[in-house]
Amino acid sequence: MNEVVTWLLDPSHWQGPAGVPSRLFEHIVMSGASVLTACLIGLPIGLYIGHTGRFANLAINIANIGRAVPSYALLVVLLPIALSLWPDPTSGLNIVPTFIAMTVLAIPPILVNTYAGIRDVDRDLVEAARGMGLREGQILRGIEIPIATPVILGGLRTATLQVIATATIGAILGGGGLGRFIVDGYHNPGAPAQLYVGALLVALLAIGVDALLAVAQRTMTPRAIRGDIEREPLELKPVPTGGQG
């Protein structure tokens, strides 16, 4: 513990491109870009299959398959593909495989929770809205999404934590971020404090981001249902075969 404190108090470790602020910024940017990309893919699909019920089996089962792939295995599989598309080894090693892997791993919880949140909305309420003359888009935006918001944000929390962890593993392939401290410390047995500092910073980042998302989840939940929602992330279960799709 003394070595960790000494390492953190060293001003040289807080300066330059390899300092803590720079590595933290890299980690946040990589993770944020991947989660944003996953939202742009997973949210529309989840909203569509949740609202219409079409292709639900296909989409959810594909998402479950993607969830079952280990993070490191996905990184290794994507590495030769990235190097073939981007011949520059620096580009392939640093950015592409890690970004794609983080995005792929973030899509399933976002997609599945979005679908589950929309489908859990009382169908009688939806039918009543249709009877009042509301269009499908109005029903989705005005009724289903507000009620499903806590469940959707629960999926976002799960995806974000997975991405933060995967960004750490990506340092093995030459990427940046806080995982760089862990990899460099592992390969330098004479300075184990760097490894422990890296693990500590990743854990603190994950806890801090999850706490912020928990506050956002509660704040964005309509007051009428705030006391009745289940905040635990949903399990990714196959859709019953009796549904559409």
Question: Can I get a quick summary?
Answer:
It is built from ten helices and no strands.
Q: What separation lies between the terminal Cα atoms?
A: 55 Å
Number of domains: 1
The topology string of helices and strands comes to HHHHHHHHHH
Q: CATH architecture, please?
A: Orthogonal Bundle
Shape: elongated
Task: Return Rg in Å.
Answer: 21 Å
Low-confidence stretches: 229-234
Share of β-strand residues? under 5%
Number of strands: 0
The CATH homologous superfamily is called: MetI-like
Which CATH class is shown? Answer: Mainly Alpha
User: What's the total helix number?
Assistant: 10
Proportion of helical residues: over 70%
Q: Could you describe the 3D structure shown?
A:
The chain has 245 residues and is mainly alpha-helical. The chain has a single domain (2-225), classed as MetI-like (MetI-like fold, Orthogonal Bundle). Helix content is 73%, strand content 0%. The chain is built from ten helices and no strands. The protein has helices spanning 2-9, 20-52, 56-68, 71-85, 89-94, 96-119, 123-131, 136-169, 179-186, 192-220. Mean pLDDT is 82; it is low at 229-234.
